[in-house]
Design a protein that fits this description.
The complex is a heterodimer of chains A (about 230) and B (about 850). Chain A is of the alpha/beta class and about 230 residues long. Helices cover about 35% and strands about 30% of the residues of chain A. In chain A, strand 7, helix 6 and strand 8 form a beta-alpha-beta unit. Chain B is built from 26 helices and 21 strands. In chain B, helix 14 crosses helix 24. The chains are: A alpha/beta (about 230), B alpha+beta (about 850). Chains A and B meet through helix 1, strand 5, helix 2 and helix 3 of A and helix 1 and helix 9 of B.
Chain lengths: ~230, ~850
């Protein structure tokens, strides 16, 4: 199997005046393409920062981050944007749909950005898969939390990403809805053969992935294969 | 392996149709808000388009009505009757000629006993050849020439409640009033209130007894040529002869140019005032866009996560702003085209002709262009920050905008804005210095206004009235809410207040100055045109009426022929000379006496009280400022033409003159012993203590000495008042744009912060506040805002008026407090009203509704 994500001795230090705060300290791991893994840890442990670095949303203070054989630390903001658009999908705790776009348009944006043609049927198909074909013309404010997260799932898979990052995907949902969304996430993921990286508090959710990395105080304290 | 090369640069490049589509989609839910931002520039654009259209229409009207403005093809004028060869020359010109003699004289309405100084015009021939003397009844303009009849300006008719068929006494002759004069060629509402006209037939002029030696009369000859005559070409051949006879000329072409020039100045001034309203609106747009972008932070971060590049995100919002700027400009241009239909009403007193208005496409194009550019430029500072918004904002809900201020691009934008203001003012004025000072002035006054506004806010915070009740404190504290637009509101509403207030103060200063100059025992009535043989009788009449009168002052009219041997045309050709050629064209009113008056002081040279040695040059005394302006020094020789007789003089002394006093003050004073025999008239200054006394004296004087003219300070006050009410209307109209813009910015800022206000108000309601209390807090907030804005404007107006009074008018400044208080309450009240109207939605929302609402 190929490595899709590789981190070598990655650190993230925030400086404020004379003081510096080490949020991530010498993190190294790599992720196989098509695998699923989760990053767990208590609040403030550095999970979200780690996700940001892996997905090219942020830059490390030191160390090397490689995504799909591309070294991210040397790229400009706009080059990073292009990497995200080509290889990466996102799911966020608070859904992060564009409030001014309809469900369908939200799903279409990543495809439009790639300049792809005839994208409407594909976006509709994805909405159908998450059970929202009927609601395609509704705006995010007209949808419930669960529905919004399903739209964001459809969006995340729309550009056929090589790797999908999910940040607390069920954090804002009730148990029942969470269960549906998680099932959908894993089904779609399996179908598309995408690598999935989930950041979560939820150990039940983490247990559904093949590998769990626990971090605390900016350091990896365990790295276990579950399946 | 792909490293940091440019493999990602080419993909996902600028995809303009998609950017347009995104801009369109993203604006969908915000369009009404975006429209609101841009509404602040609508008024400014409307003002500009209205004024540009006015300028266009004026040009077209002047072109089409130039002949009617002059009433003839050629006007030749001078201050003495033409004789000899000159008369032959004029009589040989054209196919039809008309002569007018015009002079200031008292006129008397026997029915009411009212009398006033008016411009009497004795007319011979069929002038005007183009256009007409518009009268009521319409036939009077032609028919009055048939008998002993006059047509009288409507201002006079109204003032003395006279009717057609009444009589009017001009000099010693009584005329029947044939009609009311509504309009004469070249005459405006302003000239008719300063010097209302009375037309009489020339054949009765002598019988009025007003044509005496020394009377100041303008002689005008109007000439009509055959159609298609090249008057300009013809004029070139005769101009030297006219110049030699001291005659001025005007053609349709030169009249067109003169009128065009003066209206260009007016429209330029108005365009600059309109531009200020536009700039205020733009600052409103900038701060609204700033808030808008802040709210869009998350959307932009999501887009960035999905792979949108920084400059693409920037372009999406730039397209939105440009689109809405274009829309607003079109709206403004439409509104401006409507407003310009009403401008002739505002300007009617300044227009010498009927102004027809039509849609001006160049004006509309210009307005839309300026609107588009300026809305983009001013929205740029918040927009450039978009490029730096990190996708990380999606993960962490921090508004990470730090670093935006340090972006060097922002300075480029600021420089572009300043360049734009400069470029605009330069295009208006075509004068580098004026454009620079306008740009500097704008920046300076915005800085001062902002400083005062910020200072006021600082004072409020520093001395926050913590002992006030909660409602008052909350209302006041609301001014400091995050994303507030308090400063820009104070600046724009304050600026409008400043205009109106300064106008009012200047009017008071001028009126007070005239009043002051007649207080105490100072003269308040000036009698002039007294003939030498009348002076003793006039003095004794004044004494009989109990008026102080001792001595009359003699006045001799003369023209300057040359300075140090050089005449006007030589000086014109001499590039080194800084003297204005105009010192030769004008009439000098000169006196002779043996001593200085109380308002004069010697500054240079030696005063000569009398002159006897005819072999020497006559030593004269000239006023210091006049000498300075025209670079005349002690010892320079001046050749005067005293109504035909040449008189060589030398500058013997210079005097400082206090012009502020009602006094007979002179630029040039001759010693005794030279001008005694020259044609002259006399001036008498005296003082009346009541309006009744003034009326009695004036009636007696006009009846016995109809040729003597009277300037009553009460009349001067009245004229100044009228002038101000006419000019004031225009200025208030333009200041209105600024205040309205401020109110529009207020409306948009209230609506922009609506959600935040909604949450606050709901929170307060949840905590048990009543609707009334929330209403009070909101009302108080707007009252404080309006009050601070009005105070800012008034403070600045006080400072500038004080400076104006002290340095320009050299008088003291005692502001009247009541009108200022009224203005203050009016501006604050209007702000409260507008604020509350737009907060209605907030006040009536139920807390439950808000809980359901999403951002």
């Amino acid at each position: 199997m190929n490595t899709i994500l590789n981190l070598e001795q990655v650190s993230k230090i925030y400086k404020s005046g004379d003081r510096s705060l080490t949020v991530l300290d010498n993190i190294s791991f790599s992720v196989e393409a098509g695998s699923t893994m989760s990053i767990v840890g208590p609040s403030g442990s550095g999970k979200t920062t780690l996700l940001g670095l892996c997905a090219g949303l942020d830059r490390s203070s030191s160390g090397k981050v490689e995504l799909h054989e591309t070294r991210l630390d040397g790229l400009s903001e706009d080059q990073l944007a292009a990497v995200r658009n080509q290889y990466v999908g996102f799911i966020f705790q608070n859904f992060q749909l564009m409030p001014t776009l309809t469900a369908l348009e939200n799903v279409m944006v990543p495809l439009e950005l790639r300049g792809e043609k005839n994208i409407r049927p594909r976006a509709l198909d994805l909405l159908d898969k998450v059970g929202l074909a009927e609601r395609s013309h509704h705006y995010p404010t007209q949808l419930s939390g669960g529905e919004q997260q399903r739209v964001s799932l459809a969006r995340a898979f729309s550009n056929k990403p090589q790797i999908l990052f999910a940040d607390e995907p069920t954090g804002n949902l009730d148990a029942e809805t969470s269960e549906k969304v998680v099932k959908l996430l894993f089904d779609l993921n399996r179908e598309a053969g995408t690598t999935l990286v989930v950041v979560t508090h939820d150990l039940d959710l983490a247990a559904k992935t093949q590998r769990i990395i626990k971090i605390k105080g900016g350091k990896i304290i365990s790295d276990t294969q579950t399946k | 392996m792909i490293s940091s090369d440019d493999s990602f640069d080419n993909k996902n490049s600028l995809n303009f149709p998609w950017l347009l589509q995104m801009a369109w989609r993203d604006s969908r839910k915000n369009r009404s808000r975006l429209l609101l931002f841009v509404s602040s520039i609508v008024l400014g654009i409307a003002a500009l388009v209205a004024i540009y259209s006015l300028g266009d229409n004026l040009r077209q009207n002047i072109d089409s009505q130039a002949a009617e403005l002059l009433g003839a093809d050629l006007q030749v004028s001078g201050n003495r009757p033409v004789t000899g060869n000159t008369k032959k020359l004029i009589d040989s010109l054209g196919t039809e000629r008309s002569e007018e003699r015009s002079f200031a004289s008292m006129i008397l309405f026997p029915k009411s006993g009212g009398n006033r100084l008016a411009q009497v015009k004795a007319l011979d021939g069929n002038f005007p050849f183009y256009g007409e003397l518009e009268t009521i009844p319409a036939t009077a303009g032609k028919d009055f020439r048939l008998g002993k009849q006059a047509i009288v300006d409507q201002t006079l008719m109204l003032q003395y409640n006279a009717k057609v068929g009444d009589s009017i006494k001009v000099g010693e002759e009584t005329f029947g009033i044939a009609g009311i004069l509504m309009k004469a060629p070249g005459q405006t509402g302003l000239t008719s209130s300063v010097a209302p006209s009375v037309y009489i037939p020339m054949k009765y002029l002598d019988q009025t007894g007003l044509m005496q030696k020394g009377s100041r009369v303008a002689y005008r000859h109007y000439i009509k040529f055959k159609p298609n005559t090249d008057v300009e070409k013809l004029l070139k051949t005769i101009e030297p002869r006219l110049d030699a006879a001291d005659l001025d000329n005007k053609t349709v072409q030169s009249q067109k140019e003169d009128t065009g020039r003066s209206f260009k100045d007016l429209t330029q001034f108005l365009a600059l005032v309109g531009f200020i309203a536009l700039l205020l609106g733009c600052i409103g747009v900038a701060s609204a866009v700033h808030i808008y972008i802040r709210e869009k932070l998350n959307s932009i971060a999501i887009l960035r996560c999905l792979g949108v590049k920084g400059y693409q995100a920037f372009l999406i919002y730039l397209i939105q702003i440009a689109g809405i700027g274009l829309f607003g400009s079109i709206l403004g241009a439409g509104l401006g085209s409507i407003i310009q239909q009403f401008l002739p009403i505002v300007l009617k007193d300044f227009l010498p002709f009927e102004l027809t208005t039509g849609i001006s496409w160049p004006a509309i194009g210009q307005g839309i262009g300026i609107g588009l550019i300026i809305s983009i430029l001013f929205a740029m500072p918040p927009l450039v920050g978009i490029r730096k918004i990190s996708p990380l904002n999606v993960l962490r809900n921090t508004s990470e905008t730090s670093g935006v201020e340090k972006d060097p691009v922002i300075w480029v934008v600021y420089i572009l804005i300043i360049l734009f203001i400069f470029g605009f003012s330069y295009l208006q004025t075509r004068n580098l210095i004026q454009a620079l000072s306008f740009t500097g002035g704008i920046l300076g006054s915005f800085i001062v206004l902002t400083a005062i506004a910020t200072g006021l806010m600082w004072l409020v915070r520093r001395f926050f009235p913590s002992s006030w009740s909660y409602l008052w404190r909350q209302g006041l504290a609301n001014l400091f809410r995050p994303n507030n637009q308090t400063v820009i509101l104070i600046v724009s509403i304050g600026l409008g207040t400043l205009f109106i207030c300064t106008l009012f103060f200047t009017q008071t200063i001028l009126l007070n100055r005239v009043k002051l100059s007649s207080s105490g025992n100072k003269p308040n009535i000036v009698l002039f045109d007294i003939q030498s043989n009348q002076k003793d009788a006039v003095i004794s009449l004044a004494k009989q009426q109990g008026l102080p009168a001792d001595e009359t002052v003699p006045i001799v009219n003369m023209r300057l022929e040359s300075v140090n041997g050089k005449n006007g045309s030589e000086i014109k050709n001499d590039s080194l000379k800084k003297q204005s050629r105009r010192i030769f064209g004008r009439e000098y009113r000169v006196t002779f006496r043996d001593s200085l008056t109380a308002s004069e002081k010697m500054v240079q040279g030696k005063w000569t009280s009398s002159f006897t040695d005819q072999s020497k040059l006559v030593p004269i005394s000239i006023e210091e400022g006049f000498a300075e302006r025209n670079q005349i020094k002690l010892g320079d020789t001046l050749l005067f033409n005293v109504q035909g007789a040449m008189m060589q003089t030398v500058v013997g002394s210079m005097r400082e003159v206090n012009w502020a006093e009602v006094q007979t003050n002179f630029l040039v004073v001759f010693p005794k012993g030279v001008l005694e025999e020259a044609p002259q008239f006399h001036v008498l200054l005296t003082r009346v203590t009541s309006p009744e006394m003034s009326a009695r004296f004036q009636t007696a004087l006009v009846q016995r000495f109809p040729n003597v003219s009277i300037i009553d300070l009460a009349l001067v006050l009245k004229v100044i008042d009228e002038l101000f009410s006419k000019i004031g209307f225009v200025i208030r109209f333009m200041a209105g744009f600024s205040i309205l813009t401020g109110l529009v910015v207020l409306i948009s800022s209230v609506l922009i912060s609506k959600y935040q206000r909604l949450q606050e108000s709901v929170l307060l309601r949840t905590l048990g506040a009543s609707r009334k209390q929330i209403f009070a807090i909101t009302a108080l907030e707007y009252f404080f805002l309006g009050a601070m804005a009005a105070a800012t404007g008034i403070i600045l107006a006080l400072i500038s008026s004080f400076a104006l009074a002290k340095f320009t008018f050299e008088t003291e400044f005692k502001p009247e407090l009541l009108p200022v208080l009224i203005l203050f309450l009016l501006v604050s009240g209007l702000t409260v009203f507008i604020g509350l109207i737009n907060s209605r939605g907030i006040l009536s929302k139920s807390p439950l509704e808000v809980l359901r609402q999403d951002v």
